[in-house]
Amino acid sequence: MEQSPAPARAAAVPVDAPSPHDARRHPHRLQGSLFQPIGDEGRAELVERRLVDAITRGHLAAGERLPPEADLARSLGVAPVTVREALLALRGRGLLVTRRGRNGGSFVADHADPLSFTREAVRAASRLALRDLGAHYAAITGACVRLAARRADPSEAQQIRQRMQRLGDLDTEQRRRLLDDVQIEIVALSQSARLTREQMKLQAEISPYLRLVAHESEDALRQGEHLAAVADAVEAGDEESAVIRTELMVDETIDALISLQVRLN
Fold this sequence. Notes:
Blueprint: H1 8-11, H2 20-25, H3 29-34, H4 44-56, H5 69-76, H6 80-92, E1 96-99, E2 105-108, H7 114-124, H8 127-151, H9 154-164, H10 172-188, H11 193-217, H12 221-236, H13 239-264
Antiparallel strand pairs: 1-2
Helix pairs in contact: 4-6, 5-6, 7-11, 7-13, 8-11, 8-12, 8-13, 9-12, 10-11, 10-12, 11-13, 12-13
């Protein structure tokens, strides 16, 4: 039987958005799900695919420095030569550049625009696939916030609301990272390690679409309003309101993506 994690207050990682300098030294929590061990299938193609996903989804931003080869190899559970081969392929595709010197290393190319990648993914996807993405996300996140409303201490939700008060003062990238982390932290209040891990994977998948919707609609703060309402419902122990507001946020996102798809096609 799965053991419950430590109380969310102790387990949660602070969600204050880092400065660009700090972000390049300390990967934010979504990157934790990207750099999990690959295991026995540790081939260069799999490493390359995982890093491509991280770049095209915006979890590794343009200009961001990757961890050293040895650290990447250790995190991914592969040999350094495998990582080196994957990085060479990414340089050949123009997604990475190498800089020499004391502060050198492998950096995401400045032209690697995740919005362009995500826009193309929306254009190529079927409407059914987009609806299915939303249904999966709503089902898992809804179950998580229901448990959070049942189990969380009200003071924990209050701390999340306090962090969100500075949302309007952040730049676009800091805002997206804060919102992603807030969503995961709300889910962590469910006190389910398994659901929290699943949410981290889902958040990594849907985050580029949330970023694209905010960019296209010029209404990035709307997503913050939804999460603030969910946090309020969790604080009040109102399971139904937490789920309803989560589903509304997802429905709005998927509807916006389908509208964008019509314009793109």
